[in-house]
Amino acid sequence: METAVEKKYKKSTFPVEGMSCASCAASIESMLRTKEGVQEANVNFAGKTVQVAYEPATVTPAQLRETVQEIGFDMLIDKQTEEELEERHQASLDKLKRKTIVAGILALPVFVLGMFFHDAFVGINWVMLLFTAPVLLWAGQSFFVNAWNQAKFFRANMDTLVALSTGIAFIFSVFNTVYPHFFMSRGLMPHVYYEAVAVIIAFILLGKYLEEGAKDRSSAAIKKLMGLQPKTVRVLRNGGELEIKVEEVAVGDRVVLLPGDRVPVDGEVVAGTSFIDESMLSGEPLPVKKEPGSKLFAGTINQKGSLQLIAEKTGGETMLAHIIKMVQEAQGSKAPVQKLVDKIAGIFVPVVLGIALLTLAAWLIFGGEAYLTEALLSMISVLVIACPCALGLATPTAIMVGVGRGAENGILIKDAESLERAHQLDAIILDKTGTITAGEPTVTDVVWAEGVAEQERLEQLFFSMEAQSEHPIAQAVYTFYKDKGLQAIQPSYFNSLTGLGVEADFGTERYFTGNEKLVKRQGVQISQSLIQEARRLQEQAKTVIFFSNEAKVLAVFAVSDPIKPSAAAGIKAMQEVGLEVYMLTGDNSQTAAAVAKQTGIKHFQAELLPQDKATFVQKLQAEGKKVAMAGDGINDAQALATADISIAMGQGTDVAMDVAGITLMRSDLTQIAAAVKLSQATVRTIRQNLFWAFFYNVICIPVAAGLLYPFTGFLLSPMLAGAAMALSSVSVVGNSLRLRTQKL
């Protein structure tokens, strides 16, 4: 539940433009967090968004945007449609593509001249300057602009490294082109490094372009979900049919669906009969029959018939919109390991600047005859190769692909923490009703005590009591007798006894209906024959309800809730991925034992109250186990909130889904094992990415600084440094994309 403090903060996600590395993300976060009224700010570098929890009474989105703009970035606060955001992104990508192509075309002749024909003719340096200047001043302009914006606040990022390395090399080369006699008069060759400047910028732009394309593929799941909603809708207004934009549909509108149409809003069928493909929600391939009174959900597909529905939820309130929002927030959230990486990335660039200066000083002091050339080249190589892009992309790209992969398979992950922690689980607790069983119980047996008269009247009283209760078993009784035409009587007194049943007064007599624990607590007599009947029914995995007055038990009613077809396979799959499976239920021991036996569960507890389930979770946690809880009802909410990972079945209550970190849209227990496998694969990918990102920097920075030179004579070229840096970022994103083919 939200606290009063949490309620006063509004959480919003805004697109961010202009970020080039993890240090950019760290700068935006730190600036926003210092703003009064901001509780938290988390930037998703891979997704180019920032999630801000702020107090609207203290700070406005416009003020947040000004803060971001001060350091050279932009935050889009106006409501943007996905099409508009896509257009902006595509325009930015096209611009980057043009700059990459132009930089590559101009860099090629500079590279050839500088590497193979540097003494071919008089004035060659001027030719290379002519080709390099547009690469630096036009194609690479953004590096210098962003670096300056960061420097104004005494900050540094990837653009700082690129601007310093290429800027220093370019200025040094221009100086030697314009005034070569300065070094020649001192017995030194006036070297130029135009080829390094042009090729570095071309490589970095190419890397950024490939990286952007790869990141687009990592958010494919969101685009796929958004594509499920139609752009236009047919509605009946003022006696005629109009075609309007989906954003203009209002609650209460009568929407017309033709064969093949996607359902645009959530609503209720009021006319027509058809079959609807709901596989995007339920995962079930068979279409579902819909007729007046049936519920429809946005994104599902009408098949053969025509329907009319009344819109009940539109826009951001539909189930599809909630799914999209949950996936977006999960992709934008941060896994615990990412918070450590962010801290490292935040100090990484200043450390690299320090290493570059030390490299320069060491070469100037201990270098040989060409010490100035080697000093300059080594410093530039360190600045170029140390770009922390790979480090910044390692975790968020894996999270984005992992969350998207889950969404495609009906596993909705609320946040990155849930995805990361699921692989640590030791035990899982399953509620019985609605989780292991179908959650659609029905009355199967009625056994009266010997000598009970007025059975029809008593049956009506029993029905009237159950009609007052919200328990799934009570609802089964209500539906059973409602279909038989019984009418409920209003009791003069009614009280729900948590975890036991209910009591009610009709006239001068009090009646009880509930489990065996209730009967024993009231001290009510029960005949031996009824006890035997109750045991027989319980051994058949049926739930037994006792109905009594203050003197004796009058009857027992058996309710059967069939076990889900996937339950046994799902429980076996959980055990195979290393989970210890427990079943907790408020039902009696005999029924619980029968269900456990049929599904292969070794550990179970019965006749538990809601708080007992939460206590059991805490007991396992006290033993050092990481515990997941899967449930579908309000009575599971406390245990769900207590568990390390909470899993809600998609057909359960909104309360359970709000509390849960993971929601299974198909209510299929095999998906729990799939979620654990997805977590294992995602965490494995994150670790691989971080290893290679750190390994790359740990190995390459010393090599770039010239560590191998005294032993091998090898000095890393700035051009190769630029290529290696670009390759590292692309390889990390590529490794994350492998999750899209992960078998769950």
How would you concisely characterize the structure shown here?
The chain has about 750 residues and is α+β, with helices and mostly antiparallel strands. Among the domains are: about 5-65, Alpha-Beta Plaits (2-Layer Sandwich), CATH 3.30.70; about 225-320, Distorted Sandwich (Calcium-transporting ATPase, cytoplasmic transduction domain A); about 410-440 and about 565-675, Rossmann fold, CATH 3.40.50.1000; about 440-560, Calcium-transporting ATPase, cytoplasmic domain N (3-Layer(aba) Sandwich).
CATH topology of the domain at 412-438 and 563-673: Rossmann fold
How much helical structure, as a percent, in the residues?
40-55%
Q: What CATH architecture of the domain at 412-438 and 563-673 do you see?
A: 3-Layer(aba) Sandwich
Distance between the termini: 32 Å
Number of helices: 29
Strand order of the largest sheet: 14-26-25-24-15-22-23
> What is the highest CATH level, the class of the domain at 412-438 and 563-673?
Alpha Beta
Radius of gyration: 34 Å
As a percent range, the share of strand residues is 15-25%
Number of strands: 26
| Shape annotation | elongated
Low-pLDDT regions: 1-6
Supply the CATH superfamily name of the domain at 412-438 and 563-673: HAD superfamily/HAD-like
Largest sheet: 7 strands, mixed
Sheet/helix structural class: alpha+beta
Q: Estimate the mean pLDDT confidence.
A: 81
Question: Could you please describe the fold and organization of this structure?
Answer:
With 744 residues, the protein is α+β, with helices and mostly antiparallel strands. Among the domains are: 4-65, Alpha-Beta Plaits (2-Layer Sandwich); 226-318, Calcium-transporting ATPase, cytoplasmic transduction domain A (Distorted Sandwich); 412-438 and 563-673, HAD superfamily/HAD-like (Rossmann fold); 442-560, 3-Layer(aba) Sandwich (Calcium-transporting ATPase, cytoplasmic domain N), CATH 3.40.1110. 52% of the residues lie in helices and 18% in strands. The chain has 29 helices and 26 strands. The protein has a seven-stranded mixed beta sheet, sandwiched between helices. The chain has a six-stranded antiparallel beta sheet with strand order 6-5-7-13-8-11, with no helix packed on it. β5 and β6 form a beta hairpin. α5 (124-139) runs parallel beside α9 (194-218), α9 packs parallel to α29 and α15 (389-408) runs parallel beside α29. The radius of gyration is 34 Å and the shape is elongated. The protein starts with a helix and ends in a 7-residue tail after the last helix.
